[in-house]
Amino acid sequence: TGMAEPGDEDAVDLARRHLIQPWPFAGSVGHEARALIGEGDGIYITDSSGQRLIDGPAGMWCINIGHRREELAKVMYDQAMALSYNTPWYTMNAPSAQLARRIADHAPGDLSHVFLTTGGSSAVETALRFMQFYNNVRGRPEKKLILSRGGAYHGSTYLSASLNGRPRDRDWMDGADELVVKLSSPDPFRRPKGMSLAAFTDGLIDEFRDTVARVGAERIGAFVGEPVQASGGVIVPPDGYLKRIREICRDNDILYISDEVVTAFGRLGHVFASGDVFGIDPDMITFAKGVTSGYFPLGGVIISQRLLEQLRRSNHPDAMFGHGLTYTSHPIGCAVALKNLDILEDSVLAHAREVAPYFQAQLKTLEELPLVGEVRGLGLMGCVECVADRESKDPLQLDKNVGKRIDAHCHELGLLVRPLINMCVMSPPLIISREQIDDMVAILREGI
Ligand code: PLP
Fold first, then answer.
1. Each residue's pLDDT tens digit, 97-112
2. Where in the chain is the domain with CATH 3.40.640.10?
3. How large is the ipTM?
4. Ligand 1 centroid from CA 196, angstroms
5. Is there a contact between 148 and 224 (Cβ–Cβ < 8 Å)?
6. Which InterPro entries has this protein been placed in (predicted)?
């Protein structure tokens, strides 16, 4: 049909005719109309009808310091005028080296080196490919299986997507199933009726230990887990659970990969949550999203000094980690990330820590509503889960996707929600004020 000429047709119509958007259904792929957003400012976005909305999901958990930050626009411009790109194959740039140093300074344990990618999926993919390389070089080629959990979301590239634990992500998709071993989601809300939290946690740890014993530690290369399962519905694990899993991994020479694509850069009030919130020191941490507050696609994986030393001292110093992306260490992305980190360190992290209890408490008031089974969260991540019945906790399914219906109501009232079937996930920009939290919760209450 040739190229569409932008002109009379509006963007929604053009998109319907030519754009494939993420997560489409077969029956509407390439024909979808979604809300058209024209502007952003602070915690707000404005749609094409002129309706101003609180950006409840902060884009996709990423607009951490808020929209329309002139400092970030300026740093992008300045870096593009100085150096817009250089090949990371044969050359390097200063912003990426500076960023690596600052990230390593914030990282827990002996995490010392950073490989920069284009986003979260490529970060998880890099961590997994590094685990494979590491075990090949160590002469452990059979140690490659990956432990992952129900409710997990780790990305949309082939191997990262193979780890995803939400059924709808995999129902119609293939994956490297032969490489993945699945465990339960640490979801306290769905624990058997009458079971104590301590017994539930012990059960999860037993499952982990039994799985390692059954499959064989000599065949398991890594465990990959989000500290708080984000897209699974903000599943906050029970106390001590992550630490205990970390210990089992250490005892069995299984690399612990903490997927902090959502939780890093302030969502839980710290640059990294693994150490500062959960007291664990993973072998690798993956990050993306908040590292640039969504102003530029960037992600990465931080790797432990210990692993790099083992590689350097191995019998195969000439083995090559055959992995690199054209946009690894992109100078504009790294310059944006450095400025974003300045702003986070200067005020936004402290604000996020200060306002988080208020955010959680206000959101929690929605448990009064008869449709709401549970409100849960941590930091500036929250989830309102609607149930058919509070006893059975069966997910509410009015027209399959209650979240979308709530989102539609809220949209009219001035709030964008992240609908997840029967759940509404809220993760606003970290700069949100108490008054704006009040507005957000009032609209959500009315929407529900
Ligand atoms: N890991 C986690 C925990 C995520 O939530 C996401 C995306 O939402 C990803 C990985 C994938 O990141 P990206 O969409 O930037 O590829």
1. 999 999 999 999 999 9
2. 72-342
3. 0.99
4. 32
5. yes
6. Aminotrans_3, Aminotrans_3_PPA_site, PyrdxlP-dep_Trfase, PyrdxlP-dep_Trfase_major, PyrdxlP-dep_Trfase_small
